[in-house]
Amino acid sequence: MSLRPMGLVFYLPIAMACFAQTATVADTTQSDPVAYLNRALDEMQMRALRRSFVDWPRVRAEAMARAAHATDTVGTYDAIRFALDSLGDHHSSLHLTPALEALEAQHQGAHAPDSKPENFSPYVGRYGPEGHLEHRGDRTIAFVVVTKCFPENDRDFVAFETNLQKIVAELDASHPLGWIVDLRGNVGGNMWPMLAGIGPVLGEGDDLGEFFDTDGHSFWRYRDGVAAEVENGKTDAYPAVEGKAWRLAGTPEVAVLIDRSTGSSGEAMAVAFRGRPHTRFFGEHTQGSSTVNETFALSDGASMWLTIGVQADRAGKQYPSGLAPDVAVPSGNAILPPAQDPVVQAALNWLCRAPGSDDGQPR
């Protein structure tokens, strides 16, 4: 998922933050199904980014018809999914706890609907930042992987961003010629630990990206180990990395790797690099969920991730259908070692090209 990017991003995604689902389940018979469904519809109609494009009388009537025989809140889930799909933002979604998924499966006499997108990238299975050095002759390139991030608390938040900056600092000690930032398979979560962690490579700035949402307009900032959101002169700063923030000398060249599962907060990271000097994108078109999601808790433990805004780069450009790479290279369906990975090799070709050349030829 880009929520604020806790309210952001984003099914695995949301930009702004990470969401943890509770393991407990309320009694699904305590809430009146009609009232439960109406509350969900009310939130959509009041807060959804595309609410003005929806024929609400028709959608409400259809949703009520789908839930006409519901005896508990679980019986309304199909109706809620229908209404969320009717928003047309391709990112709003209903999220259930494992126990609620089991209850829905019992209701249906089969498995509950699969919320995973088709054709998922093989890189989605990576957890936690990684880093290593790549070598081309006497050339050294730093390679850092920025994975999805779903911290459950501030401790997890700080641990993620601090670990990512530590990896950057260790790689930078080798004085690399350039950097590869791998965002493939980054489906989102909380964008702010990602932003702070990769901040030294991205570079400091007060306008690294923007949110346009139902509440207004805000900017993304990274300074001295702290990621923040700035709106109307008010700064909401997130927890800082532990210890002294790392700084890179100059503005090195950066190759950003993206693919079909780079989405939500993962897409927010790609958007932040868009417009950065000496930066080029390699791989596949991103997921197309570069939106701002907000989480609305429902009474039985389920939650709606509702799209309330869109991301934009530092020039104000929005990417409602995702970002296209500068150099298109299919990622395939298996994780390959760097020496056999065509996306990595294309990035290395560019970073190690002949002086004054931008044609990707090695030097």
Tell me briefly what this model is:
The protein contains 8 helices and 13 strands.
* Total number of beta strands: 13
CATH class of one domain: Alpha Beta
- State the separation between the terminal residues, measured CA to CA: 39 Å
Give, in order, the helices and strands. HHHEHEEHEHEEEEEHEEEEH
Main sheet characteristics: 7 strands, antiparallel
* Molecular shape: elongated
Could you name the CATH topology of one domain? 2-enoyl-CoA Hydratase, Chain A, domain 1
Tell me the structural class.
alpha/beta
| Unreliable segments of 5+ consecutive residues | 1-25
SS strand fraction: 15-25%
Annotated CATH architecture of one domain: Alpha-Beta Complex
- Rg over CA atoms, rounded to whole Å, is 21 Å
Please estimate the helix content: 25-40%
Notes on the structure:
The protein is α/β, with parallel strands linked by helices and 363 residues long. It has a domain of 210 residues: 2-enoyl-CoA Hydratase, Chain A, domain 1 (Alpha-Beta Complex), CATH 3.90.226. The chain has 8 helices and 13 strands. The strands form 2 sheets. Strands 1, 5, 6, 7, 8, 11 and 12 form a 7-stranded antiparallel sheet that branches. Strand 5 and strand 6 form a beta hairpin. It is elongated and about 70 Å long. The N terminus is likely disordered.
